[in-house]
Amino acid sequence: TTVTAQCSVASITAPTATDNCSGTITGTTTTTFPITTQGTTTVIWKYADAKGNTATQNQTVTITDTLAPVANAATLTTVTAQCSVASITAPTANDNCSGTITGTTTTTFPIATQGTTTVVWTYADAKGNTATQNQTVTITDTVAPVANAATLTTVTAQCSVASITAPTATDNCSGTITGTTTTTFPIATQGTTTVTWTYADAKGNTSTQNQTVTITDTVAPVTPTLADIKSDCSATAVAPTTTDACAGTLTGTTSDALTYNTAGTHVIHWTFNDGHGQSIIVPQNVIIAIPAATPTTAIPDANFEQALIDLGYDCLKDGKVITSNISGITTLDVNTKNISDLTGIKAFSNLQTLGCDTNNLTSLDLTGLTHLTELNCYYNALTSLDLSSLTSLTYLDCGNNNIQSLDLTGLTALTYVYAGYNNLTTLNVTDLNTSAELYCYNNADLTCIATTDPAAATANSLWQKDAAANYVTNNPILIGGAVTGGTPICLGSASGLLSLTGATGTILRWESAVSPFTTWTPIAHTNTTYTAGILTQTTQFRAVLINSLCATTTATPTTVTIESTTWTGTWSNGTPNANKGAIIAADFTATANLAACSLVVNNNAKVLVKSGFNFSIANDVTVATGSTLTFENNTNLVQSKDTNGNTGNIIVKRKTSPLMLLDYVIWSAPVANQKLQAFSPATLATRFYTYNPTTNLYNAIATPSTTNFATATGYLIRLPNNHPTTPTIWEGQFEGTPNNGNYTFAVANNTYNAIGNPYPSTLSADAFIDTNAITDALYFWRKTNNTATTSYATYTKAGGTANAGGASSIVPNGIIQVGQGFLTKPTAATISFTNAMRVTNNANQFLKTKAIERNRIWLNLAKDTAPVNQIMVAYMTGASSGIDPAIDGHFINDNSTALTSTINNEEFAIQGRSLPFSDTDLVPLTFKTNASGTFSIAIDHVDGLFEGNQDVFVNDKLIGTSQNLKKAPYAFTSATGTFSNRFELAYKSSLALGVQKPEFTSNSIIVFKQNGLITINAGKAIIKNVRLFDIRGRMIYEQNNIKLNTTVLKDFTAAEQTIMVQITSDLNEIVTKKIIY
């Protein structure tokens, strides 16, 4: 049978079966009880007999759940709370299958919404059968906030309270509540103010709390420091201010007077009240008195002072007036005041109009009133009137006085002059425009009006000497004219030509005056031109003229200005220049060039001219005792004055090139009175020499300690005996009066003379050559402890060559240095040096910028690696293929080994060749040596067109080869002798020139002994074998299969003897040469 039940079946009575053997069999099942699974479950019953025979039978069990849970409480209790309900214990229900069911709800906790909220509880069993039940929740808020502080603190302040931190309260629902108030901040009302704070929660429940604010101002205003009010006449005070901590800016009040005009100290009492009961009283002094340092002007005439008092210009009333009170006044009227003395009038420095007529004046000094345009001084007792400084005057009325002479010169602005009713005898109106109104009648003794245009004056009806319209005779006219020619000059110079122009009358004399040009010294001179002698300060010159009627007049002076500027740490009158002298009165180091028309060093000043800078002084140099003027190496003192007016000593320092112990230098002194031994104290006394033109030898000087350097003379001096043995610069120091001006000296012509630069500045070598018509070279001693080289570097207008060439060589190139001596071979019997030769070159050696076209090659000759000498070939303007004076320079022939160029069988160190250049030109070279060996010819440097692609070859005609020297030096061997046809300088290769291979001859084979070894050079020929024979013909050595053009017999040695050398070529040509071994 199917079993049906709600919720579960706990068990079922097992069914039975009948077995044929075992009888009744009770069924068994594997189903688990109770059965609670909803739906249908099949229970399988199994019947098994003893023998294990089985049978099965199914039984259906159906479980259902159709009943909803039933709430345990018929009605749920209503929940009531203040503010919120955080949670509610869930109610329960009973289910027939699931048992106790706990209700669930969708309501969100906590519940804080004021009022009633229905919470719906749902009971659901496992089968989904549900039931619901409602529960009411009521939220209320009826409690006001409670202040956190039982009592609020009283707030106390001096002036105001800007704000107060709001107090708080705690609400059962809203939590912390911040108080609010309707009181306005800031609170500045003095006294007590109650601030009411209100605490309101969200439900509108409120409570209040009061807080007291007390404002009390107990601080008085700041006491100000009131400065004394000072015045010399009167003063009016202005109310001062101060500050108060609460009231801000306060303006003082007083019941005292504000204006005071009586002398003494007056006190004003200022009250400052802040309106809060605090006030102060501060005194202020008003002092009426003249400050001790206030400039005043004396007014000795009481009537003049009273007039100024009446005009309000004088408040002192003590015979003085404050100068600043009157200096700005432009118009002054003191007419008819019974004034006898206008002393003090000059303090009216801006006065333009002055009325002082109808007084008792006997004199009137208006000096300095340059702004005065109108003067009325009539009806006084004036006997003279000096108007010379009133250059702005346009209107003058000086009538009815006792004036005897009136000079209106310089008053070119005058348009109206009334000088009638005086005692005039002369009237000078030479500068008065003839269109001006001039009244000079009723001057009975007026005999002469000095004017520049008497015809115009006569034609002007206003120019009358009396009321009857009679004119003054103006013949002869006297016109002062003007002296011209005054220019700035140097201290110690003459004025230059001064000339008087535009004058009439007879010159009575000339006059001169120095600053302030008020005292004139007569000069006995009556010509229209004049030249003053040596001037030492700025001077004015004028001429004085006279005629028969008008006495004398003077010409407008000219000024000869002695412009100078003095160094005392700064220049007093700007920097010096060619027209401004320099006076150095404090230590001064020149770090720039300085030009001046003269130079004075005084006041124990020490002046140092640093290397690289120049002093160019037009006139004299003066060095006072106790002061020094030092020129370092490579500086110049250049002067242009032709005569030497220098005084005092200067120091000139000069450095050599790097030299070694026992080297020599040719020196020449740039100063006077320099002793030879004092110049180089450590040089042996026996090593000072002069050059003897007759013997061409150097002669020792007997007593160098007492011998001065002669001007423009060269002296050969060995380096000090303590000088290093390695190349080292030595610095010499000359001290004496600097040489300047033009010098001419007698010399031995057509032979060598040792001369030298006489100046403390460099010289242009070309200018020296041109001035003295030098036709040969200048030779500069450059030997450096090497007997194998020539002693001299050479210079002509073509350029210069070093003595030997090489990296350490120095090539003269147009500048003769300070202190430099040299040799030259003049054709004339005199040599001249002039300032025109002087230049400002600051290079250490002889360097010069090229001025004419020169295209040059410098060739060095060396033996092994040691320099021997240098030559130069120049293609240049003015040169030819012959001997050119001042261009071609002879080889001085002071060395037995040398390379030279040849002109007319003469040897030259420098040779000029004509332009235009041709690359087919050939320059013959001569080579000579007294010691066989290996030599080389190399280019030292080139310029001009040779700096481009033009090749330079040396042709060795002896061995038939040509070497491009721009690619490499040419090395060759030579026996002793002079070879004038072996070498030539060319500009195309020997193949292009058709140079043929020389034959295998005695001339083409070179055999020489060097370092004990025999060397054989066959040029381009190939040597097959060499045999040596003694003088008796016995073969003493043989070398075969050489197959070279040069060979050294390294394995041959013998005693000194004559040896015959037999050389066989690869063509079986035989040459035999003899040598001394």
Automatic annotation (TrEMBL):
A Pfam entry, by short name: LRR_4
Molecular-function GO terms, alphabetical: signaling adaptor activity
Keyword terms of this UniProt record: Leucine-rich repeat, Repeat
Residue span, HYR-like domain: 4-63, 71-139, 147-215
Family annotation (SUPFAM superfamilies): L domain-like
InterPro entries in UniProt: CDIRP (IPR052574), HYR-4C (IPR057078), Ig-like_fold (IPR013783), Leu-rich_rpt_4 (IPR025875), LRR_dom_sf (IPR032675)
Protein name, UniProt field: T9SS sorting signal type C domain-containing protein
Biological source species: Flavobacterium restrictum
